[in-house]
Amino acid sequence: MVIAVVLAVIGLMAVAGLNGALVLYRTPSEAIHQRLFGRPLRLGGLVEPGSLRLRGDVARFRLTDGVSTIRVVYTGPLVATFTPGQDALVGGELARDGAFTASQVIVKHSNTYRAPGGKPYRPPSIGTGSRR
Fold first, then answer.
1. Number of structural domains found in the chain
2. Which residues contact residue 14 at a Cβ distance below 8 angstroms, ignoring those fewer than 6 apart?
3. Which of 3, 28, 78, 109 gives a 20 to 30 Å CA spacing to 101?
4. Residue 37 lies in a domain
5. E strand or H helix at 10, and its extent?
6. What sign does the dihedral 84-86-90-96 (CA atoms) show?
């Protein structure tokens, strides 16, 4: 009995700790089919190639999951790594007409770091230095 209570407490602590770290999002297909209109929402998908239009600080693009596509309008600065054909996460609200007004854009990037000039980065090996 005591072991069950201890395990339950540890489980609750783990879930509570993860709760702030989790970023939940919907795909465009889920948002459309579940009719998630008029409420705060995060969408994740691919920035459709050829869809990005910039005018001043307003960016218009389409976010797709390969099945459904949603038009996104974002006003604000975009990071230099934001390009069509890459994954992105947008936060905002989906209108009934299918347009998503984003207040936040997060760009997903590759796990591979490339040094300037495109050369692969190789971190120094541990234990290869000289010992004194």
1. 1
2. none
3. 109
4. yes
5. helix 2-19
6. positive
**Measured over all CA atoms, what is the biggest interatomic distance in the chain, rounded to whole angstroms?**
70
Q: What span, in angstroms and rounded, lies between the C-alpha atoms of 76 and 73? A: 10
The pLDDT confidence band at residue 28, using thresholds 50, 70 and 90, is very high
Domain that holds residue 41: 25-107
Separation of first and last alpha carbons in the chain: 55
47-96 tens-digit pLDDT:
999 999 999 999 999 999 999 999 999 999 988 888 898 899 999 999 99
CA angle 33, 34, 36 (to 5 degrees): 115
Q: What is the CATH number of the domain that holds 51?
A: 2.40.50.140
Q: Is residue 10 part of a domain?
A: no
